[in-house]
Amino acid sequence: MAAIRPTEATTAPWWRDAAIYQVYVRSFADGDGDGTGDLAGVRARLPYLVELGVDALWFTPWYLSPLADGGYDVADYRVIDPAFGHLAEAEKLIAEARELGIRTIVDIVPNHVSDRHGWFRAALAAAPGSPERELFHFREGRGENGEIPPNDWVSEFGGTPWTRIDDGQWYLHLFAQGQPDLNWAHPAVRQEHEDVLRFWFERGVAGVRIDSAALLAKDPALPDFVKGTDPHPYVDRDELHDIYRSWRAIADRYDGIFVGEVWLPDSERFARYLRPDELHTAFNFNFLACPWDPGLLRSAIDDTLAEHAPVGAPATWVLCNHDVTRTVTRYGREETGFDFAAKVFGTPTDLELGTRRARAAALLSLALPGAVYLYQGEELGLPEADIPRDRIEDPMHLRSGGVDPGRDGCRVPLPWSADEPYAGFGSTVEPWLPQPAAWASYAADEQGTDPGSMLTLYREALRLRRAEPGFAATPGETSDGRLNWLPSAPGILAFTRTHGLICVVNLSGSPAPLPEHDEILLTSVPLDGSGLLPDDTAAWLRRKR
Ligand code: GLC
């Protein structure tokens, strides 16, 4: 049984170099056979996660939700959705995982609630100008009869972010219609979220992921959006930092940590969220969006380390999550970066090439200093699935008028056993999203015994990453920036960590010699007959002197 990694002064705090696995509960494993993944499914698969070698699980929202946005529309933060289980079961899961050495991170969605949340129902039932409506952003419309939305903002999912209700007022929702934005200038909104944080920390969670963390605060005048205006009316406003400082004080009482979903291109603004009295970490979306290109990857790594160093926060390395195109698919396309706006149906994809690159990217990201996030199924090398259009549920697809393929292609129920119905997901009826015909060929049971599989690569890499002190964060060294680039030929990324560890990635277009070394720890594919590192592959080496 794995032990929780100690947090004494001799080692850095666990979250500075943790490997964190994202569980999209609805699609992880179905314990009761009804077609939807659930907590029973996760509990039954904890041994798999122990064997994989991850330090923590981040659960996408598991709260009561009408699923207008896959659970990011929360009707009650203190209730587990009955489709997933119940609160006592969540507590059991948190405790069982912890016994097995795995910490839990829950997902809090502070920007908005569900339109079924008690507060919003009360606001609808109350009159314009009432205290109930002040918890949200209700406004009169423009135009002669108030028939034009109050401002010209655009929803993150496309279209206007305003919906008109029966009495003629409009409410703001930066995402789907079923996700009314909260008014963060209201003290009750702050109070409630601080209580919710305490509620989950009291239940033993080790951390909280903060959804849409840079969007909460709005210019109270809700003005039209004029490009280039600073501050932006709703992105990255200064008021947010005070909110996160009070959150940090709460987390510190429980030894809890935060990871913020902060999509900001400006690295200096991004780093402000990671000051010592604010969030511990934030997702590295610049690395996630970076094309498979040696120069761009190297700059993304250097920029990441440089932006984190002044605030003493560890970097995070992310290749994939429940919002973006699966890694093996993205790397198998002509455009290997990620951009929401560029997603279209029918993009040609070379999965063999993408998989080869994804294997190399796994070794790259797991060797970098900081924490690393894996999204369920990434360890199986799952591709983005084509979902029949009439089965797509994602509001991003629906609100785009059917142009954007949406995010369901990366949310397909996992294949566990090749020979069971629905690839062993556990359902006795068809799962909530259909699995592609080839899904069983990715099943975890078969990959587990195949030395050449993606699962075996991840298990071995995570084992080494934990065992080798050279991959660990250094206690007392707050920048965690122990990475030195080795001089290398064009197209080769090679760097050292401590204890003689070397990571080398070949993006040069042809086989390349390995840097000087004494031992080969792991390669993403076997070396070629002459001992060269093939194109689009990576290796971990050790040099003893
Ligand atoms: C975040 C989530 C995404 C969700 C959105 C609105 O970006 O990751 O899945 O749709 O917030 O809550």
Short description:
With 545 residues, the protein is α/β, with parallel strands linked by helices. 26% of the residues lie in helices and 13% in strands.
Task: Give an overview in words.
- The protein is of the alpha/beta class and 545 residues long.
- The protein contains 15 helices and 18 strands.
- The protein has helices spanning 39-44, 46-52, 87-99, 118-125, 131-134, 187-202, 239-254, 267-272, 285-289, 294-308, 327-330, 351-367, 395-399, 444-448, 454-467; strands at residues 19-23, 56-59, 63-64, 76-80, 103-108, 138-139, 162-164, 170-172, 207-210, 257-260, 281-282, 316-318, 371-375, 484-485, 492-496, 501-506, 519-523, 537-542.
- An eight-stranded parallel β-sheet has the order 11-10-9-5-2-1-13-12. It has a five-stranded antiparallel β-sheet with strand order 14-15-16-18-17, covered by helices on one side. A three-stranded antiparallel β-sheet has the order 6-8-7, with no helix packed on it.
- Strand 15 and strand 16 form a beta hairpin.
- Helix 6 (187-202) runs parallel beside helix 7 (239-254).
- The site of alpha-D-glucopyranose has 9 residues, from loops.
- Alpha-D-glucopyranose (GLC) is lined by residues 69, 72, 109, 175, 211-212, 261, 322-323.
Topology:
Elements: E1 19-23, H1 39-44, H2 46-52, E2 56-59, E3 63-64, E4 76-80, H3 87-99, E5 103-108, H4 118-125, H5 131-134, E6 138-139, E7 162-164, E8 170-172, H6 187-202, E9 207-210, H7 239-254, E10 257-260, H8 267-272, E11 281-282, H9 285-289, H10 294-308, E12 316-318, H11 327-330, H12 351-367, E13 371-375, H13 395-399, H14 444-448, H15 454-467, E14 484-485, E15 492-496, E16 501-506, E17 519-523, E18 537-542
Parallel strand pairs: 1-2, 1-13, 2-5, 5-9, 9-10, 10-11, 12-13
Antiparallel strand pairs: 3-4, 6-8, 7-8, 14-15, 15-16, 16-18, 17-18
